[in-house]
Design goal:
Length: 247
């Protein structure tokens, strides 16, 4: 856990998508609620289980008879691509992303690539220089594979990355990857107890460019007691120029 006296050096920032850079809850819950009703599920009990993991895994673990998880997941994904009404950027995220050097950040999501790009566009956010999506890994969150892959493509390792996450599955994946973690709680209906630094949204952060061109990311002053406060430096000149970020 970071203390106020620690400044943690990192090479890159990896951000989850849903609940972390944008709020897609209204769209997702419209589609998943209709699906749950068709399959006789308790909607209120089911909806909290959809966040942070791949769609196919959400369906598979229900063990519904005569249901093909891959076919159902494909249909849900298409419905989500078609319905982006109400998707909004998390407050302050555009400024946060704009402060990061192009080769020093990426999005790491459990959503399929086409859906991720559609939602990012709908939220009015820039296309990320790197996107790791559901299709890119054999094992989704809470497995750490996605963060290891993203870090490698940015020319570094996961333990040299700051991961911004909102879901329990994503936090566990980042912990397993050895990353520094920042939790964002803007879309949490109830507080989630975590030992990591946390913010409501990106307005809770101060971004400062250091004399060598690095970016210092830290908690704003005030805001009451926190179990941990973030203070990290995204080093200038990293990641390696030999690893070109890509979608």
């Amino acid at each position: 856990m970071l203390t106020t006296s620690q400044v943690h050096p990192v090479d890159a920032v990896l951000l989850d998508m849903d609940g972390t850079i944008l709020n897609s809850i209204k769209s997702a819950e419209r589609i998943w609620s209709a699906w749950a009703l068709r399959h006789g599920l308790d909607v209120d009990a089911f909806l909290p289980t959809i966040h942070g993991v791949q769609t196919v895994e959400t369906i598979r673990r229900l063990g519904l008879p005569s249901v093909d998880p891959h076919a159902e997941a494909a249909a849900i994904t298409q419905a989500e691509i078609d319905d982006v009404e109400g998707i909004e950027a998390i407050a302050g995220v555009a400024e946060f992303l704009g402060a990061l050097a192009e080769g020093s950040w990426g999005i790491v999501t459990s959503a399929p690539r086409a859906l991720a790009l559609r939602r990012i566009e709908a939220a009015g956010l820039p296309t990320p220089p790197l996107l790791i999506a559901a299709e890119d890994v054999a094992h989704g969150k809470p497995a750490p594979d996605c963060f290891h892959l993203a870090a490698a493509r940015l020319g570094t390792t996961a333990d040299r990355c700051l991961v911004v996450e909102d879901s329990r599955a994503g936090i566990v994946a980042a912990e397993r990857a050895g990353a520094t973690i920042l939790v964002i709680t803007s879309t949490h209906p109830t507080p989630m107890a975590v030992e990591h630094p946390a913010i409501v949204d990106y307005r809770d952060l101060v971004l400062e460019t250091t004399p060598d061109g690095s970016l210092h990311i830290r908690h704003a002053q005030g805001g009451g007691d926190r179990p941990a406060r973030l203070s990290c430096i995204v080093k200038a000149g990293r990641p390696s120029e030999t690893s070109r970020p890509r979608l």
